[in-house]
Amino acid sequence: MKIAIFSGDGIGSEVTREAVRVLEALKLPGLTLLEGDVGAAAYHRHGRPLPAETLDMARVSDAILFGAVGDPSCDNLERHLRPEQAVLGLRSELGLFANLRPATVFAGLEDLSGLRPELARAIDLLIVRELNGDVYFGDKGMRETADGQREGWDMMSYSEGEVRRIAHSGFLAARKRGSKLCSVDKANVLETSQLWRDVMIEVAAEYPDVELTHMYVDNAAMQMVKNPGQFDVVVTGNLFGDILSDLASMCVGSIGLLASASLGERQTEYGTFGLYEPIHGSAPDIAGLGKANPMATILSVAMMLRHSFGDEDQACKVETAVARALSDGVRGGDLGGDLGTEAIGDAVLERL
Ligand SMILES: NC(=O)c1ccc[n+]([C@@H]2O[C@H](COP(=O)([O-])OP(=O)(O)OC[C@H]3O[C@@H](n4cnc5c(N)ncnc54)[C@H](O)[C@@H]3O)[C@@H](O)[C@H]2O)c1
Ligand SMILES: CC(C)[C@H](C(=O)O)[C@@H](O)C(=O)O
Ligand SMILES: [Mg+2]
What we know:
Cofactor: Mn(2+); Mg(2+)
Keywords: Amino-acid biosynthesis, Branched-chain amino acid biosynthesis, Cytoplasm, Leucine biosynthesis, Magnesium, Manganese, Metal-binding, NAD, Oxidoreductase
Low-confidence stretches: none
Oligomer: single chain
Protein name: 3-isopropylmalate dehydrogenase
Pathway: Amino-acid biosynthesis; L-leucine biosynthesis; L-leucine from 3-methyl-2-oxobutanoate: step 3/4
Radius of gyration: 20 Å
GO molecular function: 3-isopropylmalate dehydrogenase activity; magnesium ion binding; NAD binding
Strand content: 15-25%
Structural class: alpha/beta
Bound molecules: nicotinamide-adenine-dinucleotide, 3-isopropylmalic acid, magnesium ion
Shape: globular
Number of helices: 12
């Protein structure tokens, strides 16, 4: 089994290093790790954030472990050269349209949530975020209006087929959990969302065992803080899912804890091909200081074991080691403690 490691920029390489230590400690038979350049690192070395060699490496791998991309020094480059294009390019080139972002409160962390402990305790939700469409991938540009002002524009759209396939991902995920699916949109204002809602209702007919509800995204943000325990699976578009998942992360305590899996249709001999990454970014404010919490990336390895290698036992082993570390009081700066990235990695490894 081949895993491509794309650690990227900022804390990306720091957190990925710890996740790779965990992966190696599992001694999976026939494991081969490949390393590729992405993001600002790739731009400086190859002139592009997603070099052809990296994409080729992704294509011959069974799964990808991704750190993070983004560097303030690149924020004024032409858009196609910016580091973020690496992760966007991998998602679209590899057809990884279903992004699973689970958010659950770990025992002992209720007091560290941004919410009151009694609200936080009930959080056990999964955001299913569409990843290949929406305003992210529409035409965009800068132009000049008739009265000589600069105008930025981005086209938002979803085709019926794009909504249908993520609807199935949402319903199937709900069926494996509490059978409740909340579709989040902005159908009161956007045609893109009206189509989204119509298609969700059509697909619901195939899943009579799953309860489908709808919520506008502004209300969903409010409800996530008011009563997050009401959510089981949330299915939503690319932009709303991006925002709601960062919100959910603080409801469970820290963005340093939220893992993700990005899946498509490709099957390998081991399972579903996927890209696994923490939901956070390259955190330039703490990059190079050894302060980042690597748990989100380590938990992404667990998701990889589950989805791409069908190894539920090893996935649970990794998740249990992280949960034990947290219940034993292992805390990085993001959770009010003072342990560094490597010490947190050590703590998880000791509990594997
Ligand atoms: N998938 C990705 O590669 C990805 C995701 C999000 C943002 N980004 C990029 O990352 C760069 C920085 O973005 P941002 O600052 O908006 O978001 P960010 O997620 O990088 O950081 C937000 C805040 O959370 C903190 N934080 C994030 N991860 C942490 C961790 N593991 N441990 C402790 N603290 C952590 C940071 O220090 C910062 O204060 C930008 O270039 C952005 O485009 C990349
Ligand atoms: C870096 C950026 C393109 C990315 C996104 O918006 O999808 C990030 O915020 C994420 O959540 O993975
Ligand atoms: Mg994001």
